[in-house]
Write a structure and sequence with these properties.
The chain is α/β, with parallel strands linked by helices and about 180 residues long. Helices cover about 25% and strands about 30% of the residues. Strand 8 and strand 9 form a beta hairpin. It starts with a helix and ends in a 7-residue tail after the last strand. Bound molecules: S-adenosylmethionine (SAM). S-adenosylmethionine binds next to strand 2, helix 3 and strand 4.
Amino acid sequence: MDAIGEAFAAIDRRGFLPPAERGMAKHDGPLPIGHGQTNSQPRTVADMLRLLDPRPGQRVLDVGSGSGWTTALLAHLVGPDGRVVGVELEPDLVRFGRANLAATDQQWARIEQAARGVLGRPEDAPYDRILVSADGGRLPDQLTSQLADGGRMVIPVAGRMILVVRDGEHLVTSEHGRYSFVPLR
Ligand SMILES: C[S@@+](CC[C@H](N)C(=O)[O-])C[C@H]1O[C@@H](n2cnc3c(N)ncnc32)[C@H](O)[C@@H]1O
């Protein structure tokens, strides 16, 4: 089993679902978490994490932390020498995600309320890895500017999964299949 598979085995999706959805945890599809938002499809999360390739000790930004599941998976992957900050726009989901994340006992990860009109969390940048779980429509400069040199960002853009790698001032982008996501607001 690779590191991503181990993270999925260690961080139980059930703990990131509302009680009524927990019986569906093994379903390979998105599941509702309220406010019209979803806990993402497991296969999609695995594809995104493999593209992102987070390593122990890295600084990671999780944009659209929702249920807190991806934040907790990322925390497991970077380990206690790393740092993960999730940002979420919907206040109820900030509370839900924080409670779910706290139950995994990974103090090197936290979830913050996103400020309207501010993408990501510039005050803690740069990040070695940025995961975005909502479709940006286009590649947002506000997020690429928070990426460290050599860093990787995975973001759905207009239905296509995009990997961005920063090489100094240069951004190298590549496309990795079609996926459907809620919009980044
Ligand atoms: C697919 S959902 C949740 C994904 C999450 N990783 C999970 O598995 O539970 C995407 C989330 O992005 C949030 N979102 C949308 N635009 C955002 C923004 N500009 N900043 C932070 N969160 C945002 C939505 O409120 C939603 O909770």
